[in-house]
Amino acid sequence: MKYLVKTLKADAGVEITQLEAATAQEARAQMTALGHVVVSVSSAQWFGQLLDIGSKSKFPVLLFSQELLSLLNSGVTIVDAVETLAEKEARTEVRNVLRAIVTQLRQGKTFSAALESVPQAFTPLYVATVRASERTSGLPEALQRYVAYAQQVDTLRGRLVSAAIYPVLLICVSLLVVLFLMGYVVPRFAHIYEDMGGKLPFMSRLLLEGGLLIESYWSIMLLALGALTVGLMLGGGRWLMQRLMTMLWRIPSVGERMRVFQVARMYRTLGMLLRGGVAITQALDMVSGLLSAVLRERLVQAGRSVQEGQSISQSFEASGLTTAVAIRMLRVGERGGNMGEMMERIAIFHDEEMARWAEWVTRLLGPALMLLMGLLIGVIVVLMYMPIFQLAEGVK
């Protein structure tokens, strides 16, 4: 959900920032973590959300990091590099963000502080990665790590989306066929049977009455569909997705895969932060937003255990944030002193496992959906023609 947060900062004055958060408290916490004094938090108005749909382009953090890395490796200073990116940028929103960063840099602020001044574009995770690199003068290395991290996440997301495209297309096409039959073909059969008279089979009569209902009230149904679409765009889609995720979590096999997916994403982010020099306790706080409410509570518990002196592997295992593979690799990382690298390897292992599982489910789900939709369409066709069959039997 979108929130408007009014903040106060000594070097920036009063600012109003629009950001995404699950609750108002989370929006307040995000701005407080960036060093802002929160004055007020309010939900964005519904009409403001409607106007924003499709109008604002999200800041391309990955592209920005790639281009900035190329310029820095060429020997260009950070100020000149960001200014160059601002001059070539055609999108007004992105150009304004880059110019704001240049202004902050020319005032003598660090690059992380400049990024922190535009929280609508850069997440606390990105800012912390840059801030950690400033202690060792390794900004190019930090950017390279983030680029690799973002590309790996995008690759996995792309593979999962590609696996879901075929079932979604199959469902959409099948629903269109069913709507065409119920809204156009079935009503015409119903009018023919009205002229013929006679007693119709019960199931056929239900089908024909449903087709006549759609034909009579198609405009109202179309308006209802439009209202439903607008409602989903204004936040109902998020609520519906949350309900769907809750239902999927309750399915043992699917819920376990979803848990592994979130845990793997957590390990990948933790690995990037630890390799960048971020302390483990601070890194745990930053990745909490990547997890569901249940796993977030477990992560908080693990963080307390780490602060009390327990090892990361013991804390994660006790909190249910590991798998059989992850716990062994964490112990190896602790013995070898390369915990960040080992966490990234854990993420890669489970990402590949998740991709294989998604591909297997897609291969199984496609034929199952095709069979189900074929049966549905077949039943509609049979029920339409059943009175004709009965009439033919009567003639014989």
Could you please describe the fold and organization of this structure?
By secondary structure, the chain is mainly alpha-helical. The chain has three domains: 1-56, Ubiquitin-like (UB roll), CATH 3.10.20; 59-122, no CATH class; 145-396, Type II secretion system (T2SS), domain F (Receptor-associated Protein). 77% of the residues lie in helices and 6% in strands. The protein has 16 helices and three strands. The protein has helices at 24-33, 46-52, 61-73, 78-88, 92-106, 111-116, 124-134, 139-196, 202-216, 218-250, 252-275, 280-287, 293-307, 312-318, 324-336, 339-395; strands spanning 2-9, 13-20, 37-43. The radius of gyration is 28 Å and the shape is elongated.
Summarize the entry for a quick read.
The protein is 77% helix and 6% strand. With 396 residues, it is mainly α.
What structural keywords apply?
Receptor-associated Protein; 16 helices; mainly alpha; Ubiquitin-like (UB roll); single chain; 3 domains; 396 residues; three-stranded antiparallel β-sheet
The main sheet comes to:
3 strands, antiparallel
- The rounded distance between the terminal residues' Cα atoms is 66 Å
Number of domain modules = 3
Write the CATH fold name of the largest domain: Receptor-associated Protein
How does CATH name the architecture of the largest domain? Up-down Bundle
CATH class call of the largest domain: Mainly Alpha
Shape: elongated
Average predicted local confidence, pLDDT: 80
**Strand share of the residues?**
5-15%
Helix amount, in percent? over 70%
Strand order of the largest sheet: 2-1-3
**Class inferred from helices and paired strands:** mainly alpha
Which spans have pLDDT < 50 for at least 5 consecutive residues?
45-57
Tell me the series of helices and strands, N- to C-terminal: EEHEHHHHHHHHHHHHHHH
Tell me the number of helical segments per DSSP (H or I, 4 or more residues long). 16
Structural Rg: 28 Å
Number of DSSP E strands: 3
